[in-house]
Amino acid sequence: MRYLTVEAAPDGTAALHPLGTELRDDPSFTREAIHHVELLDDRSVLMLAEGSGDRARYAEIMRESPYVEDFLVSGTDRWMAVSQFELSGPAKQIMLRADVPGVVVETPIHINADGSLRITYLGDESALQDLYSAIADDVPFQLDVLETGTYAPDQHSLTRILTPRQRDVLEAAVESGYYREPRRATHEDIAETVGIASTTVGEHLRKIEQRVFTALVR
């Protein structure tokens, strides 16, 4: 099985869905992630999403939106929201064209501050190619491929963004105590374990940290 991680971003300043524009622009709460999304038979969407901040303001926007058919919010500072809403705009294109046999979406789907989505699809090579052709064909949003590779179910999503060599270096760094306080290993120690030059270890660790930290804040 393979995975394909893409970033779907709106063209211009609009969000992927009209409702998303209002949710994105309100500073009193933050949309964190989407934990489940399902296209229903009537072409509406059922979604389980996570948020933080002013839950009451979020509920007010949802209640007043002409797109929302029903919703329920539970929790306090960190809350979960179940909603059913009407598809519209680029979000409609994403959902309808991504309905490709043999492809599933890995959750959570991360919501970036600008309203774009970081989505990982799972399937075989042929199915993922069909998916990309479907969603990249004349759609009203920007679609960037971030990562692709072999999917390992027991592997954390953050480590999948690393190359095999980067994972070897990271594992050696952690096991040797490089990230402990006080530090118990050097680049030379890691280099000896992995079998590469110490200068190469430094280059790998910088790239690892850049990729992981970038993924964490997206």
From TrEMBL:
Pfam families: HTH_10 (PF04967), HVO_0513_N (PF24278). Residues 17-151 form the HVO-0513-like N-terminal domain. The keyword S-adenosyl-L-methionine does not apply. The keyword Transcription regulation applies. Residues 162-213 form the HTH bat-type domain. Keywords: Transcription, Transcription regulation. This is Helix-turn-helix domain-containing protein. Coiled coil: none annotated.
